[in-house]
Structures are given as structure tokens and as C-alpha cells.
Hints:
Pfam families: HTH_18 (PF12833), Response_reg (PF00072)
CATH architecture of the largest domain: 2-Layer Sandwich
Domain Response regulatory: 2-119
CATH superfamily of the largest domain: Reverse transcriptase/Diguanylate cyclase domain
InterPro entries: CheY-like_superfamily, Homeodomain-like_sf, HTH_AraC, Sig_transdc_resp-reg_receiver
Number of domains: 4
Number of strands: 10
Shape: globular
GO molecular function, one term: DNA-binding transcription factor activity
Protein name: Stage 0 sporulation protein A homolog
Amino acid sequence: MRILIADDERLVRVSLISMLRELYPGEHEIDCAKDGEEMVEMVNRASYDVVFLDINMPKKSGLDALELCKPYFDGTVWCVLTGYTEFQFAKRSISLGVKEYLLKPLDIQELKHFMDAIVNEKKGKKKDRRQLFANKISQAFALADTMGIVNQMWPERKEAQYSIYLFLADTAGNIERQAVYAKLYGDLKENLDRIIEETDQYALFFLQSGELCLLLEGKEYDRISAYLKIHGTEYDMRAKITALWSKAKDFKELYLHKQLLLALSPIRILEDDLTTISMEELRNRSRIMEKRYFCEKIEMLTACYLTENYEGANKILQEMEGNEKLKETFGQIRKDSLLFYLSVVWNDKFEGSAYEELVRQLREVIQKGIVEGCGRKKDLIQQIKDYVAANYMEDVTIAAIGNRFGITPSYISRVFKDKTGEKYIDYVTHIRMKKAREILLNEPEVSVKEVAERVGYVSEKHFSRTFKKYFHCNPSLLASSL
């Protein structure tokens, strides 16, 4: 912590510095002021965690100086050091928000008790503040994903730097992917709590589409960009992990960059394992759109294979087989990264450097899947639709559905849209709005808040906005018109 000692007696300043260094060697940065005016100047120049101040100082008393500083530094803890015991001084100290009132000469155990309490209190407040920050950001991102509205997420800091990271784990199955993400989340959080400075903020959460997202407010932390390379050997699971990141000027731009990173994320298939790459680097890659198109085809094919949509997989393979543009792009990419991705996610061996050989191997694996899975179960997308129709009031986010059915959210999203012609979130909204209308028509006495809860909405405001967008009238008006 940064500490200021304001006292006109040199012996008091030296004694307090000595005690603090004895109790907490090397832990705190300590400055000194010799009078009240110097204290005001120093507090206005720098942000202090703790200020020890004497009441009786030349030029300006400690309490007068505190009165000038207090309105602008709510996060500072103020501790009065004085030989005075008169009640009026203690009373004014309390009215100014002084945390502690210590008498001279200082007792080292009393000082330790005070400092330990401050450290513990600050740790708790920092944890609560960061949790609130993370909750606000994740909720704002989710609302923007659902409604297409990017609201102000948090009061922005002047001159702060903003950055966003997306961590993408590709595995053969959902259980393996969850294990990778769980370890990655825990390790990253532990690392962030250690390196992120007191005044900076971070939010680590999962997007509705399933990817792990990290948002930073404050200075740029190079160690985050190098995290996968430094800690990659700790991930001995069969997975391909990639991170994409970008800088932004504010929260709204961060959300837009999140959308762009997701749009460019198929390119990760062509990157080395444990690579962290910026959006600027991706944009500067040669023929980036052709490569993205190629990778999207691979992702769509993979989604069909993992969801046992073999009809769709064969259709994509037929398109790939005679596509000269895809063949040309294949000739310009690094084959080892692509083959590693396929080997990990398809849980099979892929090799070779010819486009025709790749298509042949993909077809063989798909045919093997058809034989093994023939007649085993009904269409997965229909299972998902049936589940949502029966459980719309519960958590049916695409991430929750992915966990239930053992398929990654991004794959479900692609295949659902390909097979039904609508986005998964639109299907969920349709089911919920249809049910909400039924409740309002059949039970007009039920409040809008209760209807929202019964169809799976936490926020009544969000529900009402969606209902109005869907039916062109407020839910309360529909109920009152009956």
C-alpha cells in the first residue's frame, strides 16, 4: 500500500516509519509531510491508501487539511495521531470519517492491529468490487448478445487502457473441453489476482457462446499475452488452445471487438497450439478472408460430424471436393496446424499434404461414424428443440445446452442454424414469448414480473422489452385489455 505520514515532529515520522518497516518489511511505499499544507499538496498529487496525520501541525491543522482532502479521496483510510485526548477533537475526527484515533507515543501492537485490519478490509473490498465489475460486464455482454443493444457497462476511467481476450479450447468432447476451461479459468484467476494492480479491474467470464472471455481495464499487462506460452506445459489434456485479443478505447468498442474476434476465430485452426494472436495481426495476414472461409468450412464440417449430422457433413464434403478456391487456399496454409486441429477434435489420425488426400480422409472418418452411429439415437437438434420446449423456464442458454448434450456451444449454434434456418437464441425466445402470451391471455391477474420469471427471465425489464419487440405491445397492456 502507499502510505503518507503527516506530522511536524521528525521523531514521530521516523519512529512510525521504523515500526511499519519492522512489521511489514518491503511491503509498503511510505511518504512524509511536515505540515498540513504539504499534506494537502501531496494528497492532491498522489493516491494514498492510508494517511496518518497529526492534529496540531503548523500552517494548517491535520483536521483542516483532512476536510479539504476528504471529499475527493473516498478510498483513503485516515488515521489521527495525536497527544490530545479532548473529546471535541475525537468528535470532529469521527465526523470527517477518520478510521482510527491513535495516541502518541504509538504502541507497535496497536499499529499492527490497525494495519492488519486495513489490509483485510481492502482485500475484501477489492474482491467485492472486482466481482461486481465482472457481474456487470458479463450481464451487459449477455444483454447485448440477446437484444443487440450495447449499453454503458461501467463508469469509464480517463486514460485507462482496455483490452479483451478470448480463450478458445478445441477438444474431441465436451467433458474434455469443460476440464480444459475449468483449469484455464482457475489458473488465470489466480494469476490475475496476483498481478493486476489495486486500481485496475478485470472480468473473467464465459460468453453465451461458450468461450472464456477476459476483459481488462487499466494498464496493459504483457504477461497475459504471454500466458499460454509460459504455462502451456501445464495443460497435458488433449486439446488445442488459442487466445485472440484486442485493444479498445472504451467498453462499447470492446464489445464490438469481441464480435469481430468471434467472427475471425475460425482462423485459429491454422495457428499453432497455445498461440496468442491480436486482431491487428489477424487483419494483416495475407488473404485472410479466403483463409477464414476455408476454416469456416472445416468448422461446419466438424460441427456436423460431432453432432452426428452425417447428411450435412457429406453435403459439405461434396462442396469442398469440387471447390477450386478451397483447394487453392489449402495450398497456401500451414498443414501441420490444420492436421493437429483435426486430429484433436475428430479424435483420429490425419496426415498428408494434398487437398484430395485431406478430403478422402475426412470422408473415411465420416463413413466410419455413420456405421458406428447408425440407428443409435434420433436427431440431436430435434432432441434439443424438445428439451427447450419442455424446460424453457430453466437455464437453456446455449452453454447450458452444450453441457447437457456434450457438444460445444459454437458447434450447436452452427448446426442449429444450418438445420432449422434460425438462430438457437431466436428459437428459445420464440418458445418463451409464445408461452408468456398464453399466460397473459389465460391468467390476466398474474403480474408481469411473475410471468417473466415463469418463462425463464431474471429481469422484468429485459422480458418486457423483448415482449414488446416480439408482439409490438407491452405485456401489461395485453393483460389489462382483457
